[in-house]
Design a protein that fits this description.
Structural class: alpha+beta
Number of domains: 2
Strand content: 15-25%
Number of strands: 20
Shape: globular
Largest sheet: 11 strands, antiparallel
CATH class of the largest domain: Mainly Beta
Mean pLDDT: 88
Distance between the termini: 55 Å
Number of helices: 22
Radius of gyration: 27 Å
Length: 678
């Protein structure tokens, strides 16, 4: 595939003259062009400049975005972004709202990181000069990892900041991003009514925001970070107003093919849901309520049930959506465009064919790996394999980062065995998923595993059970001290061991290493094929006058939308605002009549991925009008597509934030610290 578009990618992404507010996860360098389109008209050059400068008042909190709202380091973001760190506090945060009256009463959140984006440098040309010399996709991937380490290391030495290399458009462009990590973050305010608990619902009545304060070290002292900041809008937004959302969306599959979508939702997810159900049923039967086992496996059951609920929701939404049909229609338009020119056929058709062939291999691998993943719920055999793999990695000592990652995984696995383990139930899980594995087509199975459990001629339950009983009886890994002792053993000591599970791990190690290599090689080839396909898609978009945006990858993005309701079903129209009137109808104390119509949450067409992260929401005057924190159920498939009619994001309204803070003296003091804009 010729690289005729690599040098033009940035121009193509910026070259659109017309944009409707909604779909698009725009990079900072695209923002000016996007704001100048008719989605945001009428905007003056001064307004556009003000919005561009607003980035200096943004911070990254965990995987979320936050906005400084005072010169003294006060940050506004979604409660979800700090929820895990808050839950780790000891003693636990008292129930209900919390507001720090003074700096001394602010609560340090050691598990929450705050960073400022200092610079983004385009290093595409620098990398491509060396990557294009490599002979095959895997060599290029390995070279990219090597160059990435070098660039990041040099960047951190020269700048004194933490650096990351980000790939966009499947490697068509690369940016080196510098982050300044702030020294400390403290909890200042948690409101009541943080969440109504009805995920993906509308109307919603949630105070899903939190106020934090960022600190930096000055000598031996910590002092509030002196920051540029944004005013909080007391006027809020009205229906059809334009909004801009600043966030760090983590993952996306917007450029998946129709075949990828069908495989995901018609084969892989249904199979996963069936395995979840089987695992849950087996645990509930062998760990009935009221037993010690029930306590041990309560958290696992909760996680299984949550995963099942999420997957059911996705499958139902897929069934109700036109996602597959839309993907197929777009692909047919692409094919027709390619076939309309002999030159395009020669340039672009091979990319489509190569990607299709590689996806067939990848989907076959995913079906097998799904079963192997569920086999990991039998934690003792999985631990034995991890222990031996860790010993081999330590012996080779080639990749310190990989060794550290394995050590962390082992630590988590050890903890789970200490708290959530019963040998009989563990063995039954192994037996069940070995049976599921044996149902795979012969070409997807592993000769070493087939041989070890005599599965080559089919699954014989008694033979496999007898083998498992012997393995579990012949191991001492059920003892916590023995497990810890194996952490320091050499591969030769594993090979000489008489422990049955250690023997199993040694027997399966070469197969596991081969699988890892196969996955690595196929991933490299897929990355290369997707990059070639991305060039085709960008050329197609350019021909249609459509702007291109990169897949979500955890980097800073902007979404541009409008405050707007939607029609979820026939004869039903959702208004874009929920109000205190609806909130008081659910039980809290009544509010004065003059406040009953105050907006609590609002809907917008701003784009996001399905895993919503906290994102400050601005109006065209660069004022904070809310915080995006969730979506509606029709947007569950947001990772795969944006539906202009149904995709909606949910925001806490700035007027509700102000109203809540005014209910207490401490909250009013915080408002006095901020700048309110009417």
């Amino acid at each position: 595939m010729t690289k005729i578009y690599r040098g033009l990618a940035a121009l193509m992404m910026l070259g659109c003259s017309v944009l409707q507010a909604g779909e698009g996860l725009w990079q900072p360098q695209q923002l000016q062009q996007m704001l100048a389109t008719d989605a945001m008209t009428p905007l003056t050059p001064r307004q556009i400049s003000t919005l561009q400068q607003a980035v200096t008042a943004m911070a990254k909190v965990g995987d979320c975005s936050a906005a400084f709202v005072s010169a003294n380091g006060l940050l506004l973001t979604s409660y979800h972004c700090a929820e895990q760190a808050i839950s780790q506090l000891q003693p636990a945060l008292p129930a209900g709202s919390f507001t720090a009256l003074t700096a001394d009463t602010e609560i340090t959140l050691p598990d929450l990181a705050v960073a400022l984006t200092r610079q983004q440098q385009d290093v595409t040309a620098l990398l491509n000069r060396q990557l294009n010399l490599e002979l095959n996709p895997q060599q290029r991937n390995e070279k990219l990892q090597q160059l990435s380490r070098q660039l990041v290391g040099e960047c951190q030495r020269q700048s004194g900041y933490r650096c990351e290399l980000k790939s966009f458009h499947q490697g068509m462009s690369y940016y080196l991003v510098q982050y300044q990590d702030l020294d400390s973050v403290r909890l200042v305010h948690v409101p009541s009514l943080v969440d109504d608990g009805r995920n993906w619902s509308w109307p919603r009545y949630s105070a899903n925001y939190v106020l934090l304060r960022a600190y930096v070290r000055a000598g031996n002292q910590l002092q509030p970070y002196r920051s540029a900041f944004l005013p909080l809008s007391a006027r809020g937004v009205a229906e059809n107003d334009a909004v801009i959302v600043s966030g760090f969306p983590q993952n996306g599959q917007r450029y998946d093919t129709a075949e990828q979508v069908r495989f995901q939702f018609e084969q892989l997810l249904p199979a996963s849901l069936a395995y979840l159900s089987q695992t849950t049923e087996l645990i509930e039967r062998l760990a009935p309520a009221g037993t010690n086992n029930a306590q041990r496996y309560a958290l696992m059951l909760q996680q299984l049930q949550h995963s099942a609920l999420q997957q059911q929701r996705m499958l139902q939404q897929y069934a109700d959506s036109s996602l597959a049909a839309q993907k197929q229609q777009t692909e047919q338009q692409l094919i027709d465009w390619i076939n309309g020119s002999p030159v395009r056929q020669q340039l672009y058709a091979p990319a489509l064919n190569r990607l299709a062939l590689l996806l067939q291999q990848y989907h076959s691998m995913q079906q097998r790996d799904l079963v192997l993943d569920y086999l990991q719920y039998a934690r003792l055999p999985a631990l034995a394999m991890q222990l031996y793999s860790y010993a081999v990695a330590r012996e080779d000592a080639q990749d310190d980062a990989a060794i550290q990652q394995q050590a962390e995984q082992l630590d988590r696995h050890m903890h789970l065995l200490d708290t959530q383990f019963d040998p009989r139930l563990d063995m039954e899980l192994a037996l069940h998923f070995l049976r599921q594995y044996a149902l795979l087509p012969a070409e997807q199975r592993l000769p070493a595993l087939d041989h070890y459990f005599a599965l080559a001629d089919g699954f014989n339950r008694e033979i496999v059970r007898h083998k498992l009983v012997a393995i579990y009886r012949g191991t001492s890994l059920t003892d916590a001290d023995t497990r810890l002792n194996w952490l320091n053993q050499r591969p030769s000591q594993f090979a000489q061991s008489q422990d049955s599970l250690i023997n199993f791990a040694v027997a399966m190690h070469d197969t596991a290493a081969q699988l890892a290599q196969q996955r690595k090689q196929l991933a490299a080839e897929l990355d290369d094929a997707k990059a070639a396909m991305m060039e085709v898609l960008l050329a197609f978009d350019e021909a249609r006058g459509k702007p291109g945006y990169a897949e979500a990858n955890g980097s800073l993005r902007y979404s541009i939308g409008r405050v707007r309701g939607y029609q979820p079903t026939d004869a039903v129209w959702y208004q874009p605002f929920s109000s205190l009137r609806g909130l008081t109808a659910q039980g809290p104390a009544a509010v004065a009549a003059q406040h009953a119509g105050l907006a609590v949450n609002f809907l917008s067409t701003a784009d996001s991925c399905a895993a919503y992260t906290g994102a400050p929401t601005l109006n065209a005057r660069a004022e904070l009008v809310g915080v995006m924190f969730a979506g509606v159920k029709e947007n569950v498939l947001a990772d795969w597509h944006y539906d202009a009619a149904q995709s909606r994001s949910v925001h806490v309204d700035s007027r509700f934030i102000i109203w809540q803070l005014r209910q207490s003296e401490a909250g009013t003091a915080l408002l006095n610290e901020m700048q309110l804009r009417n």
